[in-house]
Amino acid sequence: MRPDAAARALGAHLEEGTVGIVGIHSSQEFNPTIRQTLPVLLGATETKDLCGLDINGPALNGLDLLVRWPRHPIQKLDVVPRMRGRPVLHLDDGPTLPSGLSIILDDKTAYYDATRPSRLSMLLEDGPALTPAEHDRARTAINRIVAARVSKYNHAPDLKLSLGDPARPKIVLVDQRYGDQSVESGLADAGSFRRMLADALALQEYDVIIKQHPDAITGGKESYFGPRATASSKHTERVFIVDYDINPYALIDLADKVFVVTSGMGFEALMAGREVHCYGAPFYAGWGVTHDKIRVPHRTRTRTLEDIFHAAYISLSRYYRPDWERRCEVEDLVDYIGQNR
């Protein structure tokens, strides 16, 4: 029996046209880069934008696969499509690599959803141990990303920063866009950010660096550590607010500890060898590599950083290299970004 379109899209090796017609259900129109790369990344003959359409009606007709993008609220939107025999994939930007050139797929729920098992969490909970070759590939790719200082925001300047007393250890707190679906789906809320800030300030021997979210800095959007939330902290002697674009690794370089709620920057800090404390449940929490404030019942297995990277960045992610105009491996995309900043 031939696998359905979702299973084929999740397959490790896709040839163009193996999935068929894909409908993209999104809360907004997807950008031109994604429109160009998505058919290649999914192995689709055609994609249809279903933004604003009722997916419980005729919009499903003729589709082989329904894809939900981006960060659409986790609701019961899969029920009718599945009842009508339409497989559903949840698709999002890759965890820490550029939008449009990196996507992550999950046939259970969004990869960042901690309220129920995702394909990613099931792979980590129940999947086999990595082979030595898989472990070595993951470790080499991690080293390559960190050495090239590649992130989701590669336009940001990469500068050597001087913040606080050089003799004092430092905690970096990572902001997020207000209402980011990964916060709620990561079992967190605005109170999680307040607790994170309070815990950091209670560590009197540390300088505290608060990194505001890029969308709040340049995109005019609200964030959890926006001006109001940090008004009383910014005049504290040992608190430093970074309200400008900067490469994440420039801040990680300064950090002894990194505090996050569900931000992907926590995983970048792990890759760079930092101690990471999670006040929510991002995809990389609950496996023994982070200090967790929240327990996720369906994450019980101890996994290594390489295990998590391989599952999220190799098994379930897809990459597009613009100069080749085709799919590539994560290592190829990292090389491309490093060469074309």
**How many individual β-strands?**
13
Give the strand line-up of the largest sheet: 2-1-3-4-5-12-13
Structural class: alpha/beta
Oligomer: single chain
Any idea what the radius of gyration is?
20 Å
On the 0-100 scale, what is the average pLDDT? 88
Domain tally? 2
The shape, in one word, is globular
Predict the CATH topology of the largest domain: Rossmann fold
Unreliable sequence segments:
none
What is the top-level CATH class of the largest domain? Alpha Beta
Query: Terminal Cα separation, in Å?
Result: 46 Å
Strand content is: 15-25%
Main sheet characteristics? 7 strands, mixed
Q: Per CATH, which architecture of the largest domain?
A: 3-Layer(aba) Sandwich
Helix content: 25-40%
* Count of alpha/pi helices: 12
Query: Strand-and-helix sequence, N→C?
Result: HEHEEHEEHHEHHEHEHEHEEHEEH
Explain this structure.
With 341 residues, this protein is an alpha/beta fold. It folds into 2 domains: 5-111 and 317-339, Rossmann fold (3-Layer(aba) Sandwich); 154-296, Rossmann fold, CATH 3.40.50. 30% of the residues lie in helices and 17% in strands. It is built from 12 helices and 13 strands. The chain has helices spanning 5-10, 32-42, 79-83, 119-126, 132-148, 181-185, 190-202, 214-218, 248-252, 265-271, 305-315, 330-339, and strands spanning 20-25, 44-49, 65-68, 88-93, 102-106, 170-174, 207-211, 239-242, 257-260, 275-278, 291-292, 317-321, 326-328. Helix 5 packs across helix 11 (305-315) and helix 5 packs parallel to helix 12 (330-339).
